[in-house]
Amino acid sequence: MRLSKRVETLTPSTTLAITAKAKELKQQGINIISFGAGEPDYNTPQHIIDAAYKAMQDGQTKYTPAAGLPELRKAICKKLLDDNQLTYEPANICVCSGAKHALYNIFQVICDPGDEVIIPIPYWVSYPEQVKLASATPVYIEGFESNQFKITAEQLEAVITEKTKALILNSPSNPSGTAYSKEELESIAEVCVKKDIMVISDEIYEKLVYDNVEHISIASLNDEIFKKTLVVNGVSKPYSMTGWRIGYVAGDKDIIRAIIDLSSHSTSNPTTMAQWGTLEALTGSQQPLNDMVKEFDKRRKVMIELLNDIPGITCETPQGAFYAYPNVSALFSEKITNADELSSILLEQANVAVIPGSAFGSDKHVRLSYATSMQNIEEGIKRIKTFVENNL
């Protein structure tokens, strides 16, 4: 059977492939330490689990509106106002089956063939694929390491054409952990308003910031950029709810209406009991989140220090998320010529799983997640250091 052309060009997720390979080796009895995880290593807080369980016991197991529970949409409006100084009505909100699903829906409703969507490098692996699935064209801008992997307003303006539909902005970033300052966002917003392009602001890591860094939503800067921005967020990362699959998008009512209509013909609605759990996540105790962020901060500092102690590896200190993104290009040689080869050899010979930067558009780096135990961080990076010193 011949597949459609749009899926023939899809690139499988490298992150999921590496993680699956690591799990396969573990099942064979090999002691693998994996830094591939894109999810917290904590369980979902108990009060959230209890709320979902109670909802099921109370009979909340039927369809909800395609846009999500009215109670949840109101709670999201309150969260966006309290945390981000963004004023929305429930009609501006669509709850989706994860932030990834929200992004997919956005591209499906705003993009036509020939449209261009600007994606900064390094990028989350699904951005280019989702843009291509919407018959649009990804246009890349490199965020240079010397600028903490951030793009500039000048770079942005230089690639905008009459075909440009939107800019994807991910702050804090996966994979680099970088976070844009208010001043940097203001300069980018100015270009977007002047050139009349939309901003898709992926803020899924907003709660995971360190060193007194303040998360700023670009939509909060002024009324003009507010009208052009679609804010995407969810509960997967801050509340360790990756498997619950609840995210949301906030923005222009006409776009949200189109997303709701699309959802009604695809998922019908996000899982009902997961929505009730999400309502509790947003309105209940935030202490588990605060405790998790403190622990991630400790791990972050240890991981960066240990990585920078390895000859040939340099690593910027991330400001957010739970990833380190070290430059490993000084290790390349005739034996190892790129990050893909290095990642494969580390898995096979050092029993450590990392994600090659090629998955994120940059071949000089690898990504390591510190959403794992301190013991794993210390032992895993020790293995990497031993391998590098003995073999490279």
From TrEMBL:
Give GO MF terms, alphabetically.
pyridoxal phosphate binding; transaminase activity
Q: Where is the Aminotransferase class I/classII large domain?
A: 31-384
Q: List keywords of the entry alphabetically.
A: Aminotransferase, Pyridoxal phosphate, Transferase
EC number(s) on file: 2.6.1.-
Offer one example of a GO biological process linked to this entry.
Answer: amino acid metabolic process
Q: Which InterPro entries does the entry mention?
A: Aminotransferase_I/II_large, AspAT/PAT-like, NHTrfase_class1_PyrdxlP-BS, PyrdxlP-dep_Trfase, PyrdxlP-dep_Trfase_major, PyrdxlP-dep_Trfase_small
List cofactor names only: pyridoxal 5'-phosphate
What's this protein's family per the entry? Belongs to the class-I pyridoxal-phosphate-dependent aminotransferase family.
Protein name listed in UniProt: Aminotransferase
Taxonomy-wise, where does this protein's organism fall, top ranks first? Bacteria, Bacillati, Bacillota, Desulfuribacillia, Desulfuribacillales
